[in-house]
Specification:
Oligomer: single chain
Order of helices and strands: HHEHHEEEEEH
Strand content: 15-25%
Mean pLDDT: 88
Shape: globular
Distance between the termini: 15 Å
Number of helices: 5
Number of strands: 6
Low-confidence stretches: none
Largest sheet: 4 strands, antiparallel
Strand order of the largest sheet: 1-6-5-4
Length: about 170
């Protein structure tokens, strides 16, 4: 079995080692920025999410959120609401603004990224969300919608692909 700790070493940057190795970022190399969003079939049946302006959750003051934060090791069987999933997608990858620059389009998001590059896509394994069939979905941050990818993927398959993490 693959050791999950070994598999995730690349997530923990050793900046000193990188600096000494002469590592040069794509931005430093002058390479074009990644696309704001990978292309998808324009005829795909997308799933609408609740618009950020319509959220009725998330109005607790930050100080109170921090004061009440606890770790949980057991979870409810209650499904997420569509609004809760919409809020989570927006909070982790939401687009606040789209700007044109000399070298293309950039997005201002709810999360930081060096050079406003945001070089990643967000995929969700949905198992219990009201109104959404279980399966694998891709979050489209520009549209704030879900793109169905594979409705036959199981949590066990994803856990195996993630080196046994569950």
């Amino acid at each position: 079995m693959i050791d999950p700790k070994e598999s995730r070493k690349f997530l923990k940057a050793n900046w000193k080692q990188w600096a000494e190795s002469g590592f040069v970022t794509d931005q430093q190399k002058g390479l074009p920025r990644p696309p704001v969003e990978l292309p998808f079939d324009p005829d795909a049946a997308l799933i609408d999410l609740v618009a950020p302006e319509q959220f009725t959750i998330g109005d607790m003051p930050l100080r109170q959120v921090i004061a009440q934060r606890t770790s949980k090791r057991t979870y409810t069987d209650r499904p997420l609401t569509l609004e809760e999933l919409s809020f989570l997608c927006w909070a982790t990858q939401g687009v606040r603004a789209v700007e044109k620059t000399n070298d293309g389009i950039i997005t201002r998001r709810t999360v930081p990224s060096g050079g406003a590059r945001h070089p990643f896509e967000t995929y969700l394994l949905v198992s219990r969300v009201d109104g959404i069939e279980p399966g694998l979905y891709r979050y489209l941050p520009l549209e704030h919608k879900l793109l169905p990818m594979d409705r036959k993927v199981t949590a066990a398959q994803i856990a195996e692909a993630c080196c046994g993490q569950s």
